[in-house]
Amino acid sequence: MTLEKSIFSKIIDRELPADIIYEDEKCIVIRDINPKARIHLLIIPKKQIATLFDLSPEDKDLMGHMMLLLPQLAESQGLDGFQTRIHTGESGGQEVFHIHIHLLGK
């Protein structure tokens, strides 16, 4: 099954603008356009994976990379604590079907 190109893939491909905070070969980090906290970042893998249900064993390094990036991003934003959220599926509040981690801090 081929996924329709997500809004995040369009940001990664520079087809849509975004406030990019960080980028490497595996992921991109942007500011959320509808922030729920003073600091609200989205950590998005460059590989489009629809939901956590769609992860495969080959994605463990990618997901680990993103998790290890969270404290570095928080510190770079001056945070000494933060929350993370991953919405999964429509009933889990997921709006964009391209896995992403929300980093929120006061």
TrEMBL record:
SUPFAM superfamilies given in the database record: HIT-like
Ranges for domain HIT: 7-106
CDD domains: PKCI_related
Source organism superkingdom: Bacteria
Chain location of the short sequence motif Histidine triad motif per the record: 98-102
Any matching Pfam family: DcpS_C
Active site: 100
One annotated GO molecular function: catalytic activity
The protein, known as: HIT domain-containing protein
Species this chain originates from: Hydrogenovibrio marinus
